């Protein structure tokens, strides 16, 4: 395919939160349709979507250029001044594009330090950091909020020159003056001044478009999105508003027409794209460095602990055939684990679980496929005997399919932070972080947010949102499906132009990322400081969090662990304490029988409020229908209450057979 001769080097995706209206997949589909060979992702102050963007671009045959529009403090990143005037004049924008692996690592470090050291309204770096971490990075002077453009807009040519010279001294031949054709009066004024300044300082000029949405007719939806961000309505004056509809993904022909006076600025985008060649490696794991207490290999140490642990589990078992069954299974699992190079993973998990148990922090008995591992049982990772319960190891770890083992660990919610702190102390605080998750504008939220921005009352939007069908098995219905499913929505759209306008805008904005937060369980441990692998940010509680979500963290080979804080464990712990205090009776949960008739009577009656995993309306109804009278029935209920069995009719078939 013949490519057009232009590359967008300044693009905002949905990860420029509530500012960029480009969904990553739609952006790349548009770039492909325009036959452009590459595109840059330059979100505001973050790299949240870098891995998704990289993989999606590669799948479309488009070169991904990973970048960021960073905020540069006017002096030190540590200074916090001008609170009364607001943050605007204290942030200068700068576009950074990674050329290679060094540049990618430096970009991760800069973006991370912006959050960890320079946050003041926005994550800011300063020129001290740019001097330290500029290797492998190309810099563009950015939009009207760039330091050079701001000085020129203010009529201070000497200040603009000084700023450009400073950046040029930092980035050398990797600094470009950026011009845009967005039809804004300020831009029209500053463009010739930028070209003249570049000529005087012998700096190259490059053309960009500061893209915030895909096509021109997305402008109004983007304007609504800005109102969602700022809590304003579209009818309000003196609000954040882009006074142009030019910030879309233009074709090469449109860019050439806009820069007919400076064609080399368009052509130079190809030069910049050619200089950017980051390659992200997938499929290679970066395990945290577990050090055995003795000078032996990880394989041998795992062998030793597993055999010791199994002997403790088999105390009192004298039957030779039974012991052989367990030992054969243990040897088989150990062989698979060693061949797949996962001993370190098991040792890390066993270490922090046993720390929790030594510290009196309640730990769950195990859940999910990890309960099928005898090695996990021997290491005290789980407390469920997989041979007794006929559980498959291959469901957990399959030698035919190389993927990371996944052990979910439940901790008492009050002790979870203590266990995470133990891990930080052991492996290094710079190698441990919690993992990001991203909330999106789902159908109901999109209707309410868009309605508010368009001036609808709360009562109006609430009434419309209530017409969205209830989630099915925990999954929300997209707005398009909801309209098909709900005739009353269809009637409203047909009969009321205002509501049709609301729904049209909601459809455009639905699914956009709305906010970044911290995953409830995910923690990543690394062999190196995390900023050598990915960028970090600081959440509202001051916790260090990866800028990538769970899927992206795993794709780049970092090892995640699920530290689930469970209130149920805290409640059980407190109840046991009260029983011991009031009745002088110490109860061992591991010795409770699984055939208590009174317990099953409660379950059959649907009295499962507060019972972990059995208290939702749907699963409570299924429990009543199945009428469990043994432990295996409970296993079946949890297995059947999933989308596959429910949608296929398997659950109903099981209930009929169970009850004759």
Account of the protein in words:
The protein is 45% helix and 12% strand. It is of the alpha/beta class. It folds into 4 domains: 24-214 and 249-275, TIM Barrel, CATH 3.20.20; 298-437 and 517-567, glyoxalase-related enzyme like fold; 439-515, Arc Repressor Mutant, subunit A (Orthogonal Bundle); 593-658, no CATH class. The strands form 2 sheets. Strands 1, 2, 3, 4, 5, 6 and 7 form a 7-stranded mixed beta sheet that branches. A 6-stranded mixed beta sheet has the order 8-13-10-9-12-11. β1, α2 (50-59) and β2 form a beta-alpha-beta unit.
List the helices and strands and how they pair.
Elements: H1 24-33, E1 38-41, H2 50-59, E2 63-72, E3 92-98, H3 101-116, E4 124-125, H4 127-132, E5 137-140, H5 147-153, H6 157-171, E6 175-180, H7 185-200, E7 205-208, H8 219-230, H9 252-258, H10 263-275, H11 298-313, H12 320-339, H13 343-358, H14 374-378, E8 408-412, H15 416-427, E9 432-440, H16 443-453, H17 458-465, H18 479-485, H19 487-495, H20 497-509, E10 513-525, E11 536-538, E12 544-549, H21 550-555, E13 559-566, H22 567-583, H23 597-604, H24 617-626, H25 631-640, H26 643-648, H27 650-658
Parallel strand pairs: 1-2, 2-4, 5-6, 6-7, 8-13, 9-12
Antiparallel strand pairs: 2-3, 3-5, 9-10, 10-13, 11-12
């Amino acid at each position: 395919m013949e490519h057009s001769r232009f590359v967008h080097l300044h693009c905002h995706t949905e990860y420029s939160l509530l500012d960029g209206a480009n969904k990553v997949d739609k952006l790349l589909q548009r770039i492909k349709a325009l036959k452009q060979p590459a595109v840059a992702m330059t979100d505001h102050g973050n790299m949240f979507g870098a891995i998704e963007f990289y993989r999606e671009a590669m799948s479309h045959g488009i070169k991904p250029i990973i970048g960021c529009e960073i905020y540069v403090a006017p002096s030190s990143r540590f200074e916090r001044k001008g609170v009364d005037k607001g943050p605007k004049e204290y942030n200068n924008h700068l576009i950074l594009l990674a050329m290679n692996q060094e540049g990618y690592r430096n970009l991760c470090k800069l973006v991370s330090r912006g959050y960890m050291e320079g946050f003041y309204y926005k994550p800011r770096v300063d020129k001290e950091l740019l001097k330290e971490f500029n290797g492998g990075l190309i810099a563009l002077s950015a939009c009207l909020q760039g330091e050079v453009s701001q000085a020129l807009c203010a009529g201070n040519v000497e200040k603009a020159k000084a700023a450009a010279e400073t950046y040029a001294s930092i980035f050398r031949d990797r600094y470009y003056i950026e011009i845009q054709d967005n039809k804004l009066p300020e831009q029209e004024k500053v463009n010739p001044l930028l070209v003249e300044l570049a000529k005087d300082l012998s700096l190259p000029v490059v053309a960009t478009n500061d893209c915030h949405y895909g096509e021109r007719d997305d402008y109004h939806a983007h304007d609504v999105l800005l109102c969602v961000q700022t809590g304003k309505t579209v009818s309000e004056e003196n609000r954040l508003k882009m006074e142009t509809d030019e910030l879309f993904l233009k074709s090469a022909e449109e860019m050439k027409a806009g820069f007919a006076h400076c064609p080399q600025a368009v052509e130079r985008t190809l030069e910049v794209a050619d200089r950017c060649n980051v390659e992200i490696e997938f499929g290679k794991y970066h395990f945290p460095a577990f050090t055995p207490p003795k000078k032996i290999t990880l394989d041998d140490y795992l062998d030793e602990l597993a055999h010791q642990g199994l002997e403790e589990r088999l105390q009192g078992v004298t039957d030779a055939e039974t012991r052989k069954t367990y030992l054969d299974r243990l040897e088989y699992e150990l062989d698979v684990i060693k061949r797949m190079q996962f001993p370190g993973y098991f040792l890390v998990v066993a270490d922090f679980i046993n720390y929790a148990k030594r510290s009196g922090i309640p730990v769950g008995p195990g859940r999910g496929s990890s309960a099928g591992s005898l090695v996990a049982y021997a290491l005290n990772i789980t407390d469920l005997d997989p041979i007794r319960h006929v559980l498959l190891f291959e469901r957990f770890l399959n030698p035919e399919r190389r993927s990371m083992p996944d052990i979910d660990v439940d901790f008492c919610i009050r002790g979870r932070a203590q266990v995470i702190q133990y891990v930080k102390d052991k492996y290094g605080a710079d190698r441990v972080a919690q993992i990001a998750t991203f909330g999106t504008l789902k159908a109901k939220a999109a209707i309410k947010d868009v309605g508010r921005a368009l001036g609808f009352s709360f009562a109006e939007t609430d009434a419309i949102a209530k017409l969205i069908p209830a989630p099915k098995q925990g999954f929300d219905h997209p707005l398009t499906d909801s309209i098909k499913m709900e005739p009353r929505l269809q009637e409203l759209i047909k009969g009321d132009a205002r509501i049709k306008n609301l729904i049209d805008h909601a459809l455009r904005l639905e699914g956009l990322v709305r906010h970044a937060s911290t995953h409830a369980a995910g923690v990543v441990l690394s062999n190196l400081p995390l900023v050598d692998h990915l960028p970090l940010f600081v959440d509202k509680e001051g916790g260090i969090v990866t800028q990538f979500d769970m899927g992206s963290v795993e794709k780049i080979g970092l090892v995640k662990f699920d530290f689930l804080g469970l209130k149920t464990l805290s409640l059980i712990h407190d109840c046991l304490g009260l029983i011991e205090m009031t009745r002088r009776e110490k109860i061992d949960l591991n010795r409770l029988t699984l055939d208590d008739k009174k317990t099953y009577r409660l379950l059959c009656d649907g009295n499962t409020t507060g019972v972990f995993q059995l208290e939702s309306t749907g699963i409570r109804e299924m429990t009543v229908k199945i009428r469990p009278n043994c432990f295996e029935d409970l296993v079946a209920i949890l297995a059947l209450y999933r989308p596959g069995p429910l949608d296929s009719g398997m659950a109903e078939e099981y209930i009929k057979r169970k009850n004759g």
